[in-house]
């Protein structure tokens, strides 16, 4: 059965088909709940000591996406470490 035929049958039976915007709203609501659960899971693992690149590799997401999900979950981020040679303090003249 084609989409057009299904739509026609629905209308004939007294139903009203959804608009594209309504369908997208329903799908995004379902995805939002799934992403919220994922964000809370990532937050728990991050607070237990996992690093953002490790979490990204485990979940197959980019590092930026993991940072965004952690931010949405209200995660307090650890301070960034400066890896490299120590800077010499400026001399005051």
Summarize the structure in words:
The structure is a single chain. The protein is elongated and about 85 Å long. It is mostly helical and 93 residues long. It has four helices and no strands. α2 packs across α4 (63-72) and α3 (52-59) crosses α4 (63-72). The chain has helices at 3-12, 20-47, 52-59, 63-72. The protein is 60% helix and 0% strand.
β-sheet strand percentage = under 5%
Number of helices: 4
The overall pLDDT, averaged over residues, is 87
Q: How would you sum up the global shape? A: elongated
**Low-pLDDT runs:** none
How many beta-strand elements?
0
What order do the helices and strands follow? Answer: HHHH
* Intertermini distance: 84 Å
Q: From the alpha carbons, calculate the radius of gyration and give it in angstroms.
A: 24 Å
Helix content: 55-70%
The SS-based structural class is: mainly alpha
Descriptive keywords:
93 residues, mainly alpha, 4 helices, 0% strand
């Amino acid at each position: 059965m084609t989409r057009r035929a299904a739509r026609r049958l629905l209308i004939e039976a007294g139903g009203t088909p959804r608009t594209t915007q309504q369908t997208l709203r329903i799908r995004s609501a379902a995805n939002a709940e799934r992403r919220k659960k994922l964000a809370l899971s990532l937050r728990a693992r991050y607070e237990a000591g996992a690093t953002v690149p490790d979490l990204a590799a485990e979940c197959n997401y980019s590092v930026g996406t993991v940072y965004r999900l952690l931010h949405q979950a209200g995660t307090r981020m650890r301070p960034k470490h400066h890896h490299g040679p120590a800077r010499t303090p400026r001399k005051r003249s």
